[in-house]
Amino acid sequence: MSDFLLSLFWFLLFFGSAVYLAYNRVNLLTSTVSMGAILLAYLFYGDWHPLWLLVLIVAYAALVVPNLLEFRRERITRPALEAYRKMLPSMSDTEREALEAGNVWWDGELFSGMPDWDRLMSFPAPELSEEEQAFIDGPCEELCSMLDDWEVCDQRGDMPPEAWAFIKKHRFFAMIIPKQYGGLEFSAYANAMVIAKLASRSSVASSTVGVPNSLGPAELLMHYGTDEQKQRWLPGLASGDEIPCFALTSPQAGSDAAALIDNGVVCKGTFNGKQTIGIRLNWEKRYITLAPVATVLGLAFKLYDPDHLIGDKDEYGITSALIPVDLPGVEIGRRHNPLTIPFQNGPTSGKDVFVPLDYIIGGPENAGKGWKMLVELLSVGRAITLPSTAAGGGQAAAYASGAYTQLRRQFGLPVARFDGVGEALARIAGHAYIMNAAVSVTAGAIDQGEKPAVPSAILKYHCTELGRKVANDTMDVHGGKAIMMGPRNYAGRPYMATPIAITVEGANILTRSLIIFGQGAMRCHPFVLRELQAAQDKDTERGLVEFDDALFSHLGYAISNAARAFFLALTHAKFSRVPLNTPTRRYYQNVNRYSAAFALTTDFAMLTLGGKLKIKELLSARLGDVLSCMYLASTVLKHFENQGRRATDIPLVEWSVRTLMYHAQEQLHSFLRNFPNRPIAFLLRCIVFPRGRTYSSPSDELGRKLVTLITETGEARERLSEQAFKANEPGSPLGLLQEALELSERHLPMEKKLKQAQREGLIVSEYLGHQIDEAERAEVISKAEAAELRDYHEKVQFLMSVDDFAPDEFGRRAGGEEAAAATAAGEQKPPARKAKKKTSRKKVSKKKSKAKAGN
Ligand SMILES: Cc1cc2nc3c(=O)[nH]c(=O)nc-3n(C[C@H](O)[C@H](O)[C@H](O)COP(=O)(O)OP(=O)(O)OC[C@H]3O[C@@H](n4cnc5c(N)ncnc54)[C@H](O)[C@@H]3O)c2cc1C
């Protein structure tokens, strides 16, 4: 063997073995022994140069030292810990409470750089119980059928009283309330599916039903309420006799909700004729969903105890209490107009409202624990209501757009056949699939007891953003049909509603910039939180031992991720482990690759920027995007398995994962381009992208497969829009579009006959309506066929048509005026409201008459 080949052999042996050991995370002792054996062999058999040998010995010493526990603790860890303590990022109580909320699930695996897919795959596919399925097929379909979105939004400004009564009767507000209190006690998955169906029909209905089943009094009571409070409130909330809302946001405190100035002061007062220690409350809240019709407010305020009536503290912090709206001093009843989507939403204020201490949720011992309660519940709630609303909207949009673009013809062809339209259709289908996957897999995990705080934030942000993209594309592919508002426009109102979901429960810019990665980095990283807690341990020696272990595990993990990121990038992850040998196996490998790259980059970002990373929002948001893309791609792969690995869905899976992982690549690349420490950025680029950015977005051909999938009738189209309301009845656009689409497919042979007759000169008209007459006369088609075609043609004409209004109808919708007057008079309020609410209504009317007098 030549000298060169011999040197190459030894180099490859050293380098390859090091990469192999690191890639597989072989433990420190075994790695040290293995590398020692190779070094020994080199000493005996190698033709070594002294300089090269010196390098190897120094490198090997670096591997040996961490094995000397006492030495490394004293000489390395102790000074490192002191330095670390000095640069510890400051953390507010609210940040700490947010960090402690929920638990770490699949997000933790993605952060590890070596996800254990078996953990995800072992979760059972979520299923509806018979009762839940019956509810969706029964009351839920019926409610959708009762709702005419145009009437609700444009004419009435509210759902009709029968719909309110139906919602209460069938306990739509009680999906999360246990049966013992009269609730439905549905799974998170069923809750999500109900909301998705309602959202496919009416944003007003989905918002109205979503709120009581999300963060609000019922949820707070179930988790933190005393038995007495549960008995007092839950049966009424389940039956709909009590309508809840949750009032956190105030004019001064929106995104920074913890900065609220609404306050409660502990004092002595009289309640129900008795002297008692209680709280005197003053608040001003806005944007509160259901407030105008609520009978009970879940109120967040800061609690003060200047006279130390309940303890030693002056100030307790954010506290949550249940406030019946009929108490003196409570103002409620006026409405906001959220982008013309008239679900009940409005301000509320309170002046010197006195309540006993046991109105605090969970009783006086929960004073000051309000923020913790909220973030804990948000860690689950954020994954359900808004994401499933977006998913339901996406399902409806995919179903409608597929059919409409197939039925609508321009230049002699269905517009779906034009690639430009097809591109938007593919996005609609793919994005709908991603949302479905994210919602169902995450809800399934919640039903298995997970409280995935970071995935919840990912779903909140990404599903609502994907929902917005779908709504935009849906507008585009419908052209003017989606612009002209009226009963026949099913796309305009959902499009207008999208910013609402974007804004509520943590506005999206903030969620992306501060929460997903900001929380994720601390929460999900296998060692960072441990290091932080060890550094803060008051027992400094115990802290040193714990910090030492976390630090050296962290180092090993970082080295392993560097090896993995590099090797996986070089080989396009072709040899990485996958849980299943299916046509989707490459996509698991893509996630494996980016998981290692992300973990490595995150470590360097935290190491070099420390606490500053939190305020470098553009950087942390991009890392959050990479994590989110991996999470969503994993749910897509799992959803495909959960749905029985249907071959017809493979294009959807491929398009979705490709789109997501391409975005992950681009975001990681832009992160490195903007990373302030240029040498580190260069090093990371060499490790993470040694072959450049090689991952490509979905091909045009793949996009066309998705177009076929949603523009042709079939099981894949139905599955994609499984929960959408598709009844074939007047006023149900999806049902009517589907009927017309089926007819168009059935009539293809007849259309072919017409085309042939045209070519032969038997038909001269360009207009289908006349062509049918001509074809019938020329006996190209039979009388029965002509009748069928006419019927089909009429249906399509109707679906393509838009509404128009008399000039004097603008600005004075007769029904609208009546409804507005009725609402002001309280007639539109849900019938079951209690008589004792009169006090507050009087106040509203007084306020209104004052305003009128002022005008
Ligand atoms: C229709 C509707 C229903 C609602 N229902 C309820 C309800 O039932 N109960 C309730 O309590 N509240 C409710 N809200 C309030 C909602 O939660 C707030 O609107 C939301 O938290 C944002 O607050 P803001 O509107 O004041 O926006 P602002 O806080 O003024 O934010 C403006 C913009 O700045 C961004 N931003 C702020 N800080 C940062 C930061 N540090 N980094 C990056 N970006 C940042 C935000 O993302 C946003 O884009 C509702 C709101 C709406 C619109």
Write structural notes for this entry.
It is a single chain. The chain is an alpha+beta fold. It is built from 34 helices and nine strands. The strands form two sheets. Strands 1, 2, 3, 4, 5, 6 and 7 form a seven-stranded mixed beta sheet that branches. The chain has a two-stranded antiparallel sheet with strand order 8-9. A hairpin with a 2-residue loop joins β8 (409-410) and β9 (413-414). α5 (93-100) packs parallel to α15. The protein is flat and about 100 Å long. The structure holds flavin-adenine dinucleotide.
List its traits.
855 residues, single chain, two-stranded antiparallel ribbon, binds flavin-adenine dinucleotide, 34 helices, flat, alpha+beta, 60% helix, disordered C terminus, seven-stranded mixed sheet
Tally of DSSP β-strands: 9
Give the termini separation.
Answer: 101 Å
Shape: flat
Q: Roughly what fraction of the amino acids lie in strands?
A: 5-15%
The class by helix and strand makeup works out as alpha+beta
Total helix count?
34
Low-confidence stretches: 819-855
Write down the Rg: 31 Å
Q: Main beta sheet, described?
A: 7 strands, mixed
The ligands found in this model are: flavin-adenine dinucleotide
Please tell me the overall pLDDT. Answer: 91
Percentage of residues in helical conformation: 55-70%
